[in-house]
Every structure is written in C-alpha cells, then in structure tokens.
Design brief:
The complex is a heterodimer of chains A (353) and B (517). Chain A has 353 residues and is an all-alpha fold. Chain A has a domain of 222 residues. Chain A is 72% helix and 3% strand. In chain A, helix 3 runs parallel beside helix 7 and helix 11 packs parallel to helix 13. Chain B has a domain of 242 residues: Rossmann fold (3-Layer(aba) Sandwich), CATH 3.40.50.300. Classes of the chains: A mainly alpha (353), B alpha/beta (517). Chain B: One of its GO terms (molecular function) is ATP binding.
C-alpha cells in the first residue's frame, strides 16, 4: 500500500497545520506514556489522579509543580538561546553546577554585606555559568572544537569538581554528610507563603521577558536568526557573527548557572550532589518542544514540572523508578518531532497512466 | 531489460535504427509540486541515433521532464514509453534498468574514489557486483571506444572537470544506458573541450544511442543537434522539430519570447582608480593565486574570464575578506583593506555578489524584508539596537523590490520561494544600495534565463554608469565580450594582463584560458 503513495514536500506550511501536527504528536506521546505506565501496574484512575489532579488541580500539587518549574524555565531558556545560533549546549548541567558552586562559595565565605548577599550569589552564579560555557565557546571559535564534545566533557568535570569540594573543603561539619553547610537565612530565596514556592519564580519570569526581548525585539534576534539559518552568508555579509554568537552562548551559560543558584538557594539551601541531575535532558526537551521560543519555554517547562512532580510521587508510592520521568519526556519529544513530518510533507496517492 | 544486449555490442550502441519505435516517448505529462504546476501536458519524443536538443528558460520544465524520464519524479499524469514499451519508472533504479542514463551538471562521483572504483560502486548499486580490476578494464575499453584516454586508477578529485565528466559518461554507459541525457554538459568546459564532448555525443548517436542535450547555448544546438524540442512554462512549444528546418531566431522566439540580440554595452566615462590589487598571493586547498595585479577604475567593467576552478572562488573570497592573502595588498581608492573584515570592506563600499547566492549571501529561511535589512542593521536605519523597526524594514523591502522589479514575492515572502533570477535581483538590490564603490560579481547570471540575465547585467551596467567600478568574473565569454571594455584571463591561479580593443576576442581569450601559463 505504501508503494502507491508519495511524500510531497510542502512549499509553505500553514500555521493551523503546524499547530495540529504538534498537538497530535503531543497527544500521541502522552498516550503512549500512559499505556506504558498502565502496563507497569498503575491504574488509569491513579494515573489521572497523580498526573492531573495531584500535580495541577490541588493547591499543594500545583505549588510543587510551580517550584519544580522554576529551574526548568531557566535551563530551557538557556538551551534555547544557544540553539538559536546553532550552538549545541550539551553542558547545561556543568554550567548549572558551576553556578551552584559560585553561589555556595559566596555563602560560605560571607562575601559582601548581608542585604546584597543574595544578589551577589545570583550574579556570581551567572558569571560562573557563562565562564564555564565560555571555555567551550572559545575552543569552538579559535580551534573549531565541536561544542557537543567540549561542553559535554566540561559537564563531567564540573560535577567532579563539586564532589571534590563536598568531600573536602566544603563538607558540612555539623552533619558530616557530603553536602555544603546550610545557607544562612539571608542567603535563601524568600518563600512566598504558598507551599515551597520561592522568589526564584520572579527571576525565571524576568528571564523569560529578557529572552523574549532579545530574540524577538532587539537587533540581536535578527542577527541570531541569520546566523542560525545560514552562518556562511552571515559571515560573508559582514554581520558581527562572533559578537552575536558569543552573546547568545554566554547568555545560555549564565541562565544555566543561575538555575543552579536558584535550586541551591531556593529549595535545598545547600549544595548537594543531587541538585543538578536530569536538567541536561529536560533542558533539551523543553527547548526543542518550545522551538526555542521563550514564551513557549514557559508553557513547556510548566508541563514538564508537572511530570517531574508526579514522577517523584510514583517513585515513593508505587515503587516505580524516577527514570520513568525521563522516559515520558523522551516519548513526548520523539512523537512531536516525528509528527513534524506530516506538517512538512503531504502524502498523496501515486497516480499512474 | 535491454541492458545485457546493449553492453555486449561493439562499438558501443544498442542496435537500433531510425524508423523503429522511438527511444523515449513522454506523452501528456503533468507534474505539480504542492499545487505549483511544473509541467502541464508536456511531451517529448526522442529517436534512436539522434542528438536531440532540449531548450528553454530556467523554470520552463526541462529539468522536471528529464527527471520524470529518469524516474526521479513520478508524473501526476501521462505516459512514459521507453523503446515502445510502457515502462513504470518508480525510481531512478528503474530508469537505469530501462537503459536511461543522465549526466548531471554536478557529477554523481565520489571524489576520493578512483574512476574504476566509482564505476564498480555504481554497478554494484544495480546489483552487478564486479571487482575493481574488472571495472578498470571496462573503463579502459570504453574510453578507447569513445576515443579518449582516461586513467581508471586516477582519483576523481585529482582530475580535471572535463575528465570527471568523461568518467561520469563512461559510468552511465557502463550502467547500460542506451539513452543518454546530458544536462548542460559544456557549461564547465573550455571551447576545445566542449567541441570534443559534442563530437563524442555525435559518435554515440552514430553508434545507435539516443542523446539528449540540455543546453542554453544555441550555437551548439545549431551545430551539433539533429532535432530540437523547446519548452516554455511547463509546455512543449516546439516538439521535436528537425534542426535543418528550424532557424535559431524561431527557437529564440519560442523559448524566450521576443528578445533582440543585445548590443554590446557602451563604455561610460572612466574615473580614477578605485580598486587595486598588488601582487596578491592566496593559498587555499589545492588552489594558489600567484601574484595577482589588477587596477579597476570608476565606471569601468573589467572582465575576468576563465574556466571555473582556476582560482575564481578564492579571488572572490579574498576580496570579500573571508580568505587572508599570504602576501600582497588590496586597496580601495587609497585605503588599505588587505586585513580588513568583511564588515569594514562593506563600509568602505566594496560589495560582493558571490556565485552561490543561496549559500553565502542570502538566507533561505528568512523573509525578503529580513534579507534586505541584514546589511543595514548596523547603520540604525531599521531602529536602535534594542528595538528593530519591522515597519521600516518592510518599507525598505517594498521600495527595493519595486525598484529592482522582483517578481514572485513580497516583503514577507521567504527567500527560498524565489526563482534564481528573482533571488539574484534581491541580492543586487541589497548590494547595489547606497554607498557602493566597487562591485565584485561572480557569475552573476549563471543559471538564469535570458530575460533575468539581461535585467541583472543591466543593473551592473547602471551601477557602473553611476561611477561604481565593477569586476565581472565569469566563464561565459559572450557575457564578458558584451559587458566589458577590457578583460583579463584567470588560468591556474595567474591573471593575464588585460586585453582590450581588437585584442579582446574569443580566440585570444580561449587561448589564454587553456594555455599552460
């Protein structure tokens, strides 16, 4: 039967079609995930309870979801910025670790006056994240080293550095665990009085606004678009390619570093070995699903925040590995990307004679 | 099908005589791409033993109908009859099996493989696996039959374009092609090489093959073809007319509408020197530019003739600031631009129109208004750095598109939708905007139909009249002779002294183009 059909590439994809293919892929991926979870022994009833009611429809659940969403927004934006200039930031977690370490360093050494401490922590985290991705950026610009390799490996290096600090100089002398001492109250993001939701949410929303302006309103957005779509032409036309790429890539690192500080100062109140796990994968999924659009990042991060919250519950109450969260994310991403085929191409019957 | 019989014959052709069923008959072919009609009721008839010209503007449907014949596209409607049989061509492999072969403009050869390895690879692709040694023997025998030498052990990337073309032709013949389609085969060849190729096409026809020659060069058609088919706007407007009874004027009228032969451009008044190259040396890959000297005055259009691959692209990249010279100087007026960035050169008034307009000049996935605005961003014409003015971008695009007569798209159309000619006009609209002092145009009309080509060349003339200095780098001698008051030849990385007046003639240029300087 397939032998009698043809794929025809569309000259232009109408907006409604792109949207419905996207929605179709999303539903397919979520449906597939549901089947998978049901086959693991969770009833549909419970699935609905955990993934919809307990994550989005109860105050407590929604609060948890929002709290989980905050760092997801930041890493999603980070990945998106780099993607815009075709820089594959596979070192999101590395920058996140560096950001968290920088914030912890400020906290441990009580740098600066107390009222400014939190601000300093955030700024230091951004600088550290940018510096870490800057290594990969410089390697790429000067020696054409693939950023996929360099940022990925730098991610591991950053994690080993964290371990080195936690098992050494920064080990919490009170508990003896391999975590940093807990942050002083002045070094914590303020709780807003609704579950665990903290003022990091304002930071994330501000980042969405800044990124929307950068990519959609400012001159750099257009430059990045040209560079992303045809770097050769951009260079030959005399556009400031290096400056624009650096801006977006360093911005990407800064946002991921900020995510690290927000997690440490907003929910954990210390640096531990577990705060960065999974953010690389989530960042990629969010950026792809949002097509690197900052406002869409906000929405997608919220949904993934819900899945993360539900995943935590599944682990505790149903004995299902937390990896199932990654599985759901992956299924949804693949479905949406695959559904793109139906927007780009038209299926027609092959006529003969 | 016929391939077994075809191959074992000596000298080389299928034993078909005129008067039998046509080699290839395409009848009433419709083909649309997502609603855009490419062919509408088109037909094509090819007989054994002839060289058949296929002529038409770009976008007239020549490539599409040949892609139908070679199984690349399935027609929406119509019949494909090969040698009297209704053959369903579902893929290029089916076409090869039916004995139809095509030599594309861009050869389908693996550069790092030898000629023999390429042949073995292609034969393996249709299920005939042979050893490299056997392939080498076949190549040797075939090239001897065709009357030229080709080393089967030579690596394809190391041999000349003409030799690569021969390798491709031999490969296609060894695949069993009785029907041979040559797509603009002489576009990349020198005059002498082109003559050799066309007489080879004749020998193939005499041996019983059927040869299709897709070309823009009408003189070739008149001198070397038996019959001609002309296409315009997806239809066949002249169907297999015998060449002996067809005048070129008739062909031109059918193919391009009423177009008068263009007069040579009258030189304007020349001003002072604007561009000077001093002893420029560039090395890039296998190509070396060796001590180029050149002086270009305001209002002048200087031609640089020569077969592609002799350093043209490197010269363009060097002028654009993408390639650092090893040695030598580039001056614009008295400003030393040798080490300047592309942006600085642009500011100084040096504008480059590269040959690969969609690769290194325009951005396919951006709209025309965005493409046109790219070079003006820094000036602040389209708003401050913190806020682009989409309105002024759009207005700018509307004006440019109107002034340069760009058809087929508005400010919000994506560049990828435009035809080659209109895309080139968009590029010129951007590059010839205010402040242009020197224009470097590399094959600016390659691939364009006559009408667009003329429009593009006229734009260059107009800009020279307004005092810009223009460097026209082209492989097309007609274009050079018509446009330029003087011209030099780039051959193996060396630039000849400029010819002008009576010295500027095809014979002299041709000599310099093939000479082993």
């Amino acid at each position: 039967m397939l032998d009698g059909t043809l794929l025809i590439r569309r000259q232009a994809v109408p907006g409604w079609l792109g949207a419905s293919c996207y929605a179709g892929g999303l539903c397919f991926g979520l449906g597939l995930s549901a089947i998978l979870l049901v086959s693991m022994g969770i009833s549909l009833e419970n699935l609905y309870q955990e993934f919809v009611v307990q994550t989005f429809l109860t105050s407590q659940g929604l609060g948890q979801t929002v709290t989980a969403t905050v760092p997801l927004i930041l890493v999603g934006l980070g990945m998106s910025l780099a993607m815009r200039v075709r820089f594959w930031n596979i070192g999101i977690e590395g920058q996140l670790w560096c950001g968290a370490m920088a914030a912890t360093w400020i906290s441990i050494h009580d740098v600066g006056p107390e009222p400014l401490r939190l601000l300093l922590m955030m700024l230091a985290a951004m600088a550290a994240g940018a510096a870490w991705i800057g290594i990969g950026l410089a390697l790429k610009l000067f020696w054409s080293v693939s950023e996929v390799i360099s940022t990925l490996l730098l991610g591991s290096i950053a994690f080993f550095w964290v371990q080195h600090m936690l098992f050494g100089a920064w080990r919490d002398t009170v508990t003896g665990f391999a975590t940093s001492p807990s942050f002083d109250p002045a070094e914590r993001l303020v709780l807003l009085g609704w579950e665990q939701v903290h003022s990091g949410i304002w930071i994330a929303l501000a980042a969405v606004v800044v990124c929307t302006w950068l990519t959609g309103v400012s001159r750099f957005g257009l430059l990045a678009k040209a560079i992303g779509a045809n770097p050769r032409a951009a260079r030959a036309t005399g556009l400031p390619v290096i400056a624009a790429v650096s801006l977006f890539v360093l911005g990407s690192g800064a946002l991921c570093g900020l995510a690290g500080a927000v997690i440490a100062a907003g929910t954990e109140y210390r640096l531990s070995q577990s705060i960065g796990a999974g953010y690389l994968f989530s960042g990629i999924v969010i950026a792809f699903l949002a097509r690197a659009n900052p406002l869409a990042v906000l929405a997608v991060a919220f949904v993934l925040g819900g899945i993360t919250t539900a995943g935590g519950v599944l682990k505790v109450f149903y004995g299902i590995s937390e990896a199932v969260v990654l599985l759901v994310q992956g299924l949804v991403l693949l479905s949406v990307l695959a559904a793109q085929l139906f927007a780009d191409y038209r299926l027609t019957e092959r006529k003969s004679g | 099908m016929t391939q077994g019989a075809t191959r074992s014959q000596t000298p080389s052709g299928p034993q078909k005589k005129a008067g039998q069923a046509p080699a290839l008959l395409l009848r009433d072919i419709d083909k649309a791409f997502d609603g855009k009609t490419a062919l509408s009721g088109a037909s094509f008839r090819l007989d054994w033993g002839e060289v058949h010209a296929l002529v038409g503007e770009n976008g007239a449907g020549k490539s599409t109908i040949m892609n139908v014949a070679t199984g690349v596209y399935a027609p929406d409607h119509g019949e494909v009859i090969v040698d009297g049989r209704d053959v369903p061509l579902r893929s290029p492999v089916d076409a090869v099996a039916a004995g139809i072969g095509m030599v594309h403009q861009h050869f389908r050869l693996v550069g790092r493989f030898t000629v023999a390895e390429n042949v073995a690879l292609a034969l393996g692709g249709i299920g005939r696996r042979i050893g490299i040694g056997k392939a080498a023997q076949l190549v040797k025998r075939k090239s001897a039959e065709l009357g030229f030498a080709l080393d089967p052990e030579a690596r394809v990337e190391r041999i000349s374009v003409a030799e690569q073309q021969r390798a491709e032709i031999i490969k296609v013949l060894l695949l069993g092609a009785g029907i041979m389609i040559l797509d603009e085969p002489t576009a990349v060849l020198t005059q002498q090489e082109a003559e050799a190729l066309l007489s080879m096409a004749r020998r193939l026809a005499q041996a019983g093959h059927a040869v299709v020659l897709i070309t823009h060069k009408l003189q070739e058609v008149a001198d070397h073809c038996d019959r001609i088919t002309v296409m315009a706007q997806g239809r066949t407007v002249l169907d297999a007319a015998p060449m002996a009874q067809t005048s070129l004027a008739q062909v031109t009228r059918k193919a391009f509408g009423e177009v008068k032969e263009q007069e040579p451009v009258q030189p304007g008044t020349l001003g002072g020197e604007l561009l000077r190259l001093e002893n420029l040396r560039v090395r890039h890959g296998a190509v070396t530019l060796d001590g180029l000297n050149l002086s270009l005055r305001a209002g002048e259009i200087l031609g640089i003739a020569g077969v592609g691959g002799n350093g043209q692209s490197e010269l363009v990249a060097c002028l654009n600031g993408l390639l650092r010279p090893l040695d030598g100087k580039i001056f614009l007026a008295d400003e030393d631009l040798t080490a300047a960035s592309p942006a600085k050169r642009r500011k100084a008034g040096l504008r480059v129109v590269p040959a690969d307009r969609f690769d290194s000049a325009l951005v396919r996935d951006m709209t025309l208004s965005e493409n046109l605005a790219l070079t003006g961003l820094e000036s602040g014409r389209f708003g401050p750095w913190w806020g682009l003015s989409r309105r002024s971008m759009k207005r700018n695009a509307e004006n440019s598109l109107k002034e340069f007569n760009v058809l087929g798209g508005g400010p919000e159309t994506r560049a990828s939708v435009l035809s080659g000619g209109n895309a080139q006009k968009v590029l010129l609209a951007r590059e010839l905007a205010a402040g242009t002092r020197v224009v470097v145009a590399h094959s600016p009309v390659r691939g364009l139909d006559l009408r667009s080509a003329r429009a593009v060349l006229n734009l260059l003339v107009a800009s020279a009249r307004q005092g810009a200095a223009c460097l026209l780098i082209s492989e097309d001698l007609d274009e050079i002779l018509r446009m330029c008051g003087s011209a030099a030849v780039l051959n193996r990385g060396r630039l000849s002294p400029p010819l002008s007046g009576a010295d500027l003639n095809p014979a002299r240029l041709g000599e310099l183009m093939v000479g082993h300087a």
